[in-house]
Amino acid sequence: MKQEKNIPYKIYLEEQEMPQQWYNVRADMKNKPAPLLNPGTLKPMTAEELEGVFCKDLVAQELDNDNAYIDIPQEIRDFYKMYRPSPLIRAYCLEEKMQTPAKIYYKFEGNNTSGSHKLNSAIAQAYYAKKQGLKGVTTETGAGQWGTALSMACSYLDLDCQVYMVKCSYDQKPFRREVMRTYGAKVTPSPSVTTEVGKKILAEHPGTSGSLGCAISEAVEQATTHEGYRYVLGSVLNQVLLHQSVIGLETKAALDKYGIKADMIIGCAGGGSNLGGLISPFMGEKLRGEADYQFIAVEPASCPSLTRGRYAYDFCDTGKVCPLAKMYTLGSGFIPSPNHAGGLRYHGMSSVLSQLYEDGLMEARSVEQTEVFKAAEEFARVEGILPAPESSHAIKVAMDEALKCKETGEEKTIVFGLTGTGYFDMYAYEAFHDGKMEDYVPTDEDLAIGFAGLPDMK
Ligand SMILES: *Cc1c(COP(=O)(O)O)cnc(C)c1O
Questions:
Q1: CATH class of domain segment(s) 10-20+84-115+244-452
Q2: Measured in Å, how far apart are the chain's first and last C-alpha atoms?
Q3: What is the atom index within ligand 1 of the atom nearest the CA of 277?
Q4: Among the atoms of ligand 1, which is closest to the Cα of residue 274?
Q5: Measured in angstroms, how far is the CA atom of residue 284 from the centroid of ligand 1?
Q6: How many whole angstroms separate alpha carbon 454 and alpha carbon 118?
Q7: DSSP 44
Q8: Is pLDDT of 6 > 90?
Q9: Pocket test for ligand 1, best of 419, 421, 424, 425 (most atoms within 8 A of CB)
């Protein structure tokens, strides 16, 4: 392995170099993300209305478009120390294998039991719930990473944690479920008969394998009908991007420490939280005219909200109990093909990222799942880490860009987010290895069905 002088294989920050404040990119955006709307009145949701569903301090963060820096409470920083700072790794082995002049770095967020970046926001949300004196929180989980992260945070703070897990994942990922139960969470497959909205969805779609949108409706209903509970969400929301800015702040500090300037920053995008968090401080520089970067969001071709979606107000959930959010969306009724194993299945995208994309500050690409798993495997074989399918979307595009550099001879510095590990995704890897994995790309007609369900805003 050829190593550049003075650039370590892994760049670790010291504990005292960890960020003490989150960075709120909305403060530097000229065009602010559109506000959440009350689905009844179509007026912006007030803090009071939101506080019926979310914790008070989190509502303040959700609505804060002005303060660039927000203190990370000491208790949260103490928890972060259990698994942060996370390393920024130079992919020397991958570069050598690819024979590319590109310099590739990845920020690895899989070094904790939840196996992903989700813990960064889980601990923050659990902390504010505890601070408010609540008994517990409810949430949904798809692949299971968010539910696991939240269970860990809740057990640490002694809060009750109720997780609605998308039914197909509940059945396909029994080990994820048991990890959550190990941390004391109550896990219910969704749709379920424990909520009115679950019963309704089951009546309309008997035998459904569920969806994130559906599980969100159930978790919100469960929280709003039980005293001392609030709902928490692992992605999409402004507050989640804010908490995840710890990823970008650490990445920037690590690069700055060694005088490295990134040319391109790449991340996978489901609801947009890891990507939003990773790019935030760099986007801030771009917005303030201090530096320029190319930002690339990578999404699955089977759930292409940015590349083929509409920028419109939409429901955040299938049961239409949540506020309306303006975002790139496929429609809340869109359910990705059950053949899709690669995660990132949410129908919409963070309002912050949607606005940045709309303003041409960020690009988006969609990739098919077999090529994603091919990249994942190539990466695993030289870099050692077994990547999550979600993260592998970013690997795929980072490798594509590194190949372009090989053709042009450009020595670009590519940074991508390696959001997590894939140990619970071995059925998907198995399908790939056995040649049984299929690519699924929705037709325009398929997408039209989702768009037809967008709310009428007149
Ligand atoms: C949840 C998850 C994602 C996608 O969520 P974002 O909010 O878009 O970041 C990506 N990678 C992993 C490992 C995840 O668990």
A1: alpha beta
A2: 61
A3: 9
A4: 9
A5: 22
A6: 29
A7: B
A8: no
A9: 419
CATH architecture assigned to 21-70+118-231: 3-Layer(aba) Sandwich (3.40)
Mutate which of 86, 108, 113, 145 for ligand 1? The one with the most ligand atoms within 8 Å of its CB, which is 145
pLDDT at 434 over 90: yes
Two structure tokens written together for 69: 């820096």
Tell how far the Cα of 48 is from the centroid of ligand 1, in angstroms.
Answer: 29
Q: Is the pLDDT of residue 406 over 80?
A: yes
- By C-alpha distance, which of 250, 243, 278, 246 is closest to 264? 278
- Give the dihedral sign, CA 315/317/319/323: negative
Domain ranges of the chain: 10-20+84-115+244-452, 21-70+118-231
Going from the Cα of 137 to the center of ligand 1, the distance in angstroms, rounded, reads: 20
Residue nearest to atom 7 of ligand 1 (CA): 273
Q: Which of 67, 155, 106, 123 has its CA nearest to residue 240? A: 123
* Lookup result for tokens 């024979």: 99
Q: pLDDT tens-digit profile of 54-100?
A: 999 999 999 999 999 999 999 999 999 999 999 999 999 999 999 99
How many other CB atoms are there within 10 angstroms of residue 129's CB atom? Answer: 28
Q: Is the torsion defined by CA of 117, 123, 128, 132 positive or negative? A: positive
* Residue 328 identity (one-letter amino acid): Y
- Mean per-residue pLDDT for 424-448? 94
Rounded to two decimals, the pTM is: 0.97
Residue to mutate, 86, 106, 116, ligand 1, most ligand atoms under 8 Å from C-beta: 116
Q: Which atom of ligand 1 is nearest to the CA of 344?
A: 4
CA distance 267 to 273: 10
What pLDDT, in 10s, does the model give residues 38-67?
Answer: 999 999 999 999 999 999 999 999 999 999
pLDDT in tens, 178-217: 999 999 999 999 999 999 999 999 999 999 988 888 899 9
Q: What is the pLDDT of residue 322?
A: 85
